[in-house]
Amino acid sequence: MDGNKAEIKSNLQIHHYQIGDHVLVHWRDGMYYLGNVRKVNKRDRSCLVEFEDASIHSARYHHLHPELSKEACKTCHGEVSEVPNLIVICDNCDQGYHQKCHIPQVSDSLLKPDIQWICRYCIFGSAMKAGGALKHGPKARALQVLKSELPYEISTLRWDKSHLTNSECLYCYCGGPGLWFNRMVQCCRCSQWFHEACLQCLDGPLLLGDRYCIFTCSVCRKGLESYVKLPIDMEDYVHLSLYNLTRNSKHRYFDIENSIIPFMDNNKQYVKLDKKYLDVPLTSLVRLVYEILKKHLHDKYCMDKSAKRYKSWGLRMLIPPLPTSKEYEAHYPPIKFTDHKALKATMKTRKSNPKMRIMPKRLCSERTLLENNEDLADKGNLSQGGQLSKKVKRQLNHENKIVDNNRPLKRKRKGCRLSSSNTSDMATFYQKRVNNSVEYIMAKEVNKKGRRLHSYKKCTVSARRITCDGEVQYLFHCVGEHCDKGLPIVREI
Hints:
One of its GO terms (biological process) is negative regulation of gene expression, epigenetic. The protein is an alpha+beta fold and 493 residues long. It has helices at residues 2-10, 120-127, 138-146, 218-221, 234-247, 256-267, 282-295, 326-331, 340-344, 349-352, 361-379, 390-406, and strands at residues 22-26, 32-41, 46-51, 56-60, 64-66, 87-89, 96-98, 184-186, 193-195, 213-216, 226-229, 231-232, 254-255, 272-273, 301-303, 312-315, 414-417, 440-446, 452-466, 472-478, 489-492. Helix 5 (234-247) packs across helix 6. The termini are far apart.
């Protein structure tokens, strides 16, 4: 069977997608959605698909299911139908599959005309539901049979250090994409991640980032899957609630009485909370949550300084809480969130939500300045005449927009001179703005005694640098009549 899976995987890329094709997209939550292909990227083997809600997302080839003719196999796209590998037509979607291409393989007893046969994708598509798959009925029994075997070889997947994501984007029984924090559970034996919509053992929906459980899949148990909830304390429940609020909203800070407490009250039946916290009065619960937030103010949480004191709170880093019980540690390896790949998917909120900052504003700006300063000095991107090339100018122009908005360093006013021999240091400078290679600004001149002259002169901003003391300096070239022989002037701002 392993050879059959490898053969199917190698034949998945035969189909050539075209713009305008109607496809079913296997999404990260395990569900299937209808869309139209808008752009094909043959190099990355992916397509840009527009869905019914007018949103456009990228999907890989093996997550797309096009509509083919009945004479072609949907898996290998072959049209040859011979014994013992005939093409079987699904009674639900009218798509054909070879007996050996379908997983599990179609036996000869199902080829009789009076027996109804439904393919794997139709069973998963009809039985999967938000909050858990169907548990009773013929569709549920058919789904349980399909869950006894994975449609891919799990030993060939390439995982990151924390075993949170794999480069093939293959998860769960359905073989679809997924995000480990987006309502997925991890098997304690094979360490694979499974969608909430594909599980038949859940009593209710999962919360984002909820890892307070011990789960064993049907493949490892060779039967019914197992799901056991672990107890969660009040501190971790507050952390988990803030994590869900941040994930589901564009805001960073949330009010205790209007957002945090209502969310905790509406979802307490989905976690195993201590009984003493279930019937706590509202005033006592507000005071308890406030004490927890204030206790971890400097390591987990932060306040909105613009709002009323101790009213709005948020997470310092968008990371869900992790169980620390001995029962959990006995089944799962520890997760190191310091791994960049493990945090890559978790920190995507920074791009979609500009208010979320992973690093303090000052540290982020200084690091950007120093790293780019070293890169520019190493590359030596200087053209003839000591000027920066156009490519470097565009790069510096974009980077300095970020630096200028953050303004990490203190501004001072101080004038000094640079000799013509120091113009070679322009390789370590930063250009502020470029408009046809020259931009004139109005600047105030400073004489040797430090007195400011009130006459404005036109100067060219040619470069920018950081001194050893950490001060930002700008290099000006005077264009006015009273300039001292065109000597460059460095000014600290």
